[in-house]
Amino acid sequence: MGDTLGDFVGTVMFALATLLPIINPPGVAPIFLSMTPGASDATRATLARRIARNSCVLLLVAMSAGSYVLMFFGLSLAVIRIAGGLLVIATAWHLIRAEEVPDPAIVTAPSTSALDSVESRSFYPLTFPVTIGPGSISIAVTLGAGVRLDAARSTTSVLGAAAGIVVVSLAVYFCYRFASRIVRVLGGSGTVVLLRLSAFILLAVGVQILCDGLIERFTARVVP
After folding, report:
1. Which residues contact 119 (CB under 8 A, 6 or more apart)?
2. How is 81-125 classified by DSSP, letter by letter?
3. Neighbouring C-beta atoms of residue 46, cutoff 10 Å
4. Is residue 224 part of a domain?
5. The pLDDT of residue 116 is above 50
6. Sign of dihedral through CA atoms 199, 123, 114, 183?
7. Residue 54, pLDDT score
8. Which of 27, 72, 90, 135 has the lowest tally of Cβ within 10 angstroms?
9. CA separation (Å) from 15 to 3, 36, 143, 146?
């Protein structure tokens, strides 16, 4: 019993240690704000729940079936990183170039049609690739592969990895749910500065993911 509990806790901690730095919910919260311009607290709370739920499902699917899907289509993790990096770059570039949108629109109440437009983006791009990108998906796939390799502790490892993913999703929810408080603390101008800076950081993250994928895909491995 003690060994089983220890394996479970160890798997949970390993999942948290690998997923949280990649997903970085506090760091992505300003991006969430910039992509929900003018949304009310109620709307952002609803979106936070949807994004957290989508993130949990996406990571669980990647953990349980991701490696099989990649093998079926003949894809590699490097290709997934390249494609995901391009998506992140496109999203970040759109945020940086969105200077024609008035800055006060971030904090003012939009029309009903605008709210519908925001809610329709709860999966793409708010969940993928902004929250759950190729890096976190590849980690989830690796977690699933490790579970299958460790057949003797398969059930405990599966439950531990799943519990870790649930905890990460809860962190996403709370960070996004209360992200609007940043607007009140910083004010209009401070919020815009933070959002522009976050968009640039997101662009840099996308470039890094793309470069890592290109290096992994095209660098020949030297066999000693």
Report:
1. 43, 46, 47, 50
2. HHHHHHHHHHHHHHHHTGGGS-GGGGTS---HHHHHHHHTTTTTT
3. 17
4. no
5. yes
6. negative
7. 95
8. 72
9. 18, 29, 8, 11
> Nearest Cα to 128, choosing from 174, 80, 170?
80
Is residue 98 assigned to a domain?
yes
- The count of other CB atoms within 10 Å of the CB of residue 97 is 10
pLDDT over 60 at 152, yes or no: no
At residue 28, what is the residue type? V
Say what angle helices 77-96 and 134-149 make with each other, to 10 degrees: 150
Residues 112-130 have a mean pLDDT of: 74
List Cα–Cα distances, 57 to 40, 54, 126, 172, in angstroms: 26, 5, 14, 13
128: left (phi over 0), alpha (psi -120 to 50) or beta: beta
- Tokens 């690998």 correspond to 18
Smallest Cα–Cα separation from 164: which of 180, 144, 150, 188?
Answer: 144
Give the range of the structural domain holding residue 128, as residue numbers without chain letter. Answer: 2-218
Residue 205's Cβ-count burial label (10 Å; 0-12, 13-18, 19+) is: buried
Number of folded domains in the chain?
1
Residue 223 in domain: no
pLDDT at 110: 47
